[in-house]
Amino acid sequence: MYRRPAEEDPVLDHHYAVDLAWTGDRGVGTTSYRSYGRDATVSAAGKLHDIQGSADRTFHGDADRWNPEELLLAALAECHLLSYLHVAASAGVVVVAYRDSAEGSMTQTADGGGRFTSATLRPVVTVADASMVELAGTLHAEAARKCFIAASVAFPVGHEPTTLVAATS
After folding, report:
1. Contact, 129 vs 159, CB < 8 A?
2. pTM for this structure?
3. Sheet strand arrangement including 162-165
4. 3-state DSSP helix/strand/coil % of the chain, to nearest 5
5. In angstroms, rounded to a whole number, what is the distance separating the alpha carbons of residues 121 and 106?
6. Which residues are bridge partners to 165 per DSSP?
7. How far apart are the C-alpha atoms of 64 and 38, rounded to whole Å?
8. What is the pLDDT of residues 67-111, one digit of tens each?
């Protein structure tokens, strides 16, 4: 049974594990930069589905597969969603729909490396009642502070939320 830690509880550590298998060997390994595929499969114990990954098409990857940059944005967006739903429920705001269109910017360096420079989440939250709109909008700041993934990245994560009211029948 889950017990919410009290303020005086010690810091709780959590550990995660994934498996990654490169599936891009074309029979000659990495004999040259263009000789190998960038495909990989990410899996984890207990998961029903694997993630089919590759590099971004710009870096000779398969555009039909998820690339690490997209997965990073997805992690940020989903973490904010989960944090937001938690703070909304705690504050009495009834969320009936939520979607996000996240974007990020990455700068590639001359040496072939690079880094993300920013991400922007654009959550569109639908609440059950018009009386909840103002509070719902303010809860994004608290959700951002509680998001484990956003707290772990070295670039700013902005938020441009929109709050809608569910149609009444």
Report:
1. no
2. 0.86
3. 95-99, 124-127, 162-165
4. 30, 25, 45
5. 15
6. 127
7. 12
8. 999 999 999 999 999 999 999 999 999 999 999 999 999 999 999
